[in-house]
Amino acid sequence: MIINKLDNVDINLADGHKYALRDIKAGENIIKYGNPIGHATSDIKAGEHVHTHNVKTNLSGNLEYTYEPTFHDIPEENTGRTFMGYVRENGDVGIRNEIWIVNTVGCVNKVSQRLAELTGARYFPHPFGCSQLGDDQTVTQKILKGMVNHPNAAGVLVLGLGCENNNIEVFKKVLGEYNPDRVKFLNTQDADDDIAAGIALIDELKAYAAKFVRTPVPVSKLRIGLKCGGSDGYSGITANPLVGRLSDKVIANGGSCVLTEVPEMFGAEHLLMQRCENKEVFDKTVRLINDFKDYYTRHNQVIYENPSPGNKKGGITTLEEKSLGCVQKGGLSKVVDVLDYGDRLTKNGLSLLNGPGNDIVAITNLM
Question: What is the DSSP secondary-structure string of 285-349?
């Protein structure tokens, strides 16, 4: 092993942390995953600990990029593989057959919670839907629309208060066409007993949901959202590459995967840009990265302070290191599309989704 050939290795390094394989001069780039993860701020001897005390990020502002595609040979597969899913009337496929309660406004969170407790439905509390204007309300409505249309929900009760900005009549215009057997609406201010009224509607939804059964479905119908959580120095050499191989397999069989957490692409974005299937997707990816950097700078924030204390304790030193591990969840497939926050998939393959790294926001975005 290389470690046996080094004289100064600190054998007490915490799990996930790094040591230098050779002498590194101050100012020289630190290489991991074949790419720079920052530069040395002082001379580092072979075997010494490499971390925040002697490494600094190379990230700063926006960069200029050139489209130089490099595609990997991942042949399409026709394995005939299937998964057990619920085929919906619009052709979408869910892996669950649940009843969901989707609030138009946070004011009815407690009502939805009580209904969920009494009926076994799923509810999704949030603080939004009122005192919102413009893009703020539009983003909320996009997310709620996506939840109502999610194929894991066999039936949906849209629960409103009645006086909110995003009231049911307003939200219906955003939602567009819907199946009245699958989607029910209730304004709590219009009901003498909102709990009883909600239970009655959920009972109707349960009867509708009961007609769906699991059947074998081609992998081409599978859509997987990719999200990091609790990353450490091992993530980029263990879990994330494994997820990436799964992504490539799903995509090779006609399925779709979505990679988000845009700040956790900083320092690794060039790897994604090289895999954009055409110049249009490349240009969208450049805008995705630079617009998010601009968002930070407009609010007087540096772009490289993403790694959390937990990330650093686990051995991640810089955002570049975290990003180079993060993007491996997308495998090596071509990038076929770039989506804005709350958008739904339009193409099979690997798509990039505009959104932050925050777990709760990112997971909501992937719905």
Answer: HHHHHHHHHHHHHHTT--SS--S-HHHHHTT--SHHHHHHHHGGGGTTPPEEEEE-TTPPP-SSE
Are 160 and 111 a contacting pair, CB within 8 Å? no
Look up the pTM and report it: 0.91
Mean pLDDT for back-to-back runs of 10 residues, the chain (367 residues)? 60 88 96 97 95 95 93 87 96 98 98 98 97 94 97 98 96 97 98 98 99 97 93 95 97 97 96 98 98 94 90 95 96 97 94 94 92
Torsion of CA 341, 346, 348, 352, to 10 degrees: -20
d(CA 190, CA 197): 10
| CATH 2.30.130.110 in the chain, residue ranges | 2-56
- Round to whole Å and give the CA distance between 286 and 283: 5
Residue 217 belongs to what H/E stretch?
A: strand 215-218
Which pLDDT score is estimated for 1? 43
Determine the residue type at 214: R
Contact 304, 318 (CB under 8 A): yes
| Angle formed by the axes of helices 168-175 and 134-148, nearest 10° | 70
> How far apart are the C-alpha atoms of 326 and 42, rounded to whole Å?
27
The yes/no answer on whether domain 2-56 falls in CATH 3.40.50.1220 is no
Return the C-alpha torsion angle 244, 245, 246, 250, nearest 10.
100
Sheet architecture: strand order including 35-40: 29-32, 35-40, 55-56
Which CATH number is associated with domain 98-211? 3.40.1400
Distances (CA, A) of 231 to 162, 275, 323, 335: 42, 24, 10, 23
Q: Where in the chain is the domain with CATH 3.40.1400?
A: 98-211
- How many other C-beta atoms are found inside a 10 Å radius of the C-beta of residue 3? 10
Instruction: Tell me what percent of the chain is helix, strand and coil, each rounded to the nearest 5.
Output: 35, 20, 45
